[in-house]
Amino acid sequence: MTGHTYRQLFRTPEFTPLFLSAAAQTAAGTVSGLALGTLVYRATDSPLLSAVSMFGPSLAQVLGATFFLSGADRLPPRSALTGLSLAFAAATTVLALPGLPVWGVFAVVLLQGLIASLGGGVRWGLLNEILTKDGYLPGRSLFNMLSGLMQIIGFAAGGALVTVLSPRPVLLLAALLYTAAAVITRLGLTVRPPRAAGPPSVAATRRTNAVLWSSRPRRLTYLGLWLPNGLVVGCEALFVSYDPDAAGTLFACGALGMLAGDLTVGRLVPPAMRSRLATPLLLLLATPYAFFALRPALPLAAVCAALASVGFGASLVQQERLMSLTPPELSGHALGLHSAGMLTMQGVGAALAGAVAQLTSPATAMTLMALTSIAVTLTLAAAGRADAEREAKDFGRVSG
Prior knowledge:
It contains 19 helices and no strands. By secondary structure, the protein is an all-alpha fold.
């Protein structure tokens, strides 16, 4: 990539407002997640409930992907993104209400997940539309780096604010950030028609999901995007119960590592080498958490979290492959399915890790989740190699 590629992205019409609205949205999600996880842990002293409160919205993504995802290509992008941000602002305000019972918290968390299931497809489909075909990966890389930076700031500031104030005022701050994202989207983006004709429907969602899932290479790519990532996020979901006073620091170090990984993959690695990095990066994503069996003190735990998160750069390589396997008219739906599936598996990973931690300890659960992620990554890599060898043999027979 050339040295001025990122500057060129910001000169692309509509890229900057989409970028800034995503920044506000990510900061809001980071701050509210930490505040809510702390609030629930203080009320229940439960690693499971704390983890699910932070990542629980992700569990509802599977419902959204099943019923609503056709809206990613069938709704006007500006109106959809503005409405989604305002809905998150309202839901987060409800979470800040004093006296809200724990069951009420999880009801709102479920609603947030249903709302969020549409957001990824709309945003990334619009990004794919705004940028040229060869601009998507550096553009998504920049968004991922933004996410890492906003998480560093959000977790550091959120951790300090939760300590100095209390979780509820921090949730109200997050609601204001969601509102700011809605304003930026409404004023900064132009009116665009939907990418696909027809109204959103459950039937259309299921048909397109079936088409996307029917290809074995796409299936393997989706599983590689969802499973190792979700299992490792289960490790991160236990930061609050592993060290309640330093959870913000651990999250911020993880975000720093993610920022470094996305910068390296998106800007520094040549395209010819990039396609071979998915499996090594996924192994890096999990391996450092295996060392939590030793119950490391905060400095070493922070280093492990940062090093592991470099491996999140694998998603850029996998998304590039997904786009190469997907027709352009299905790009928003395909990216939405990736986002919804990934977030769903993150919620499953958080719940599973929390349940194991409840029975054992946070350190033991993190180690088991890491080892499972390594096993899944190696299994998927072996399946991919077998497919490649089969295709090479078939091509050889046809050529002969």
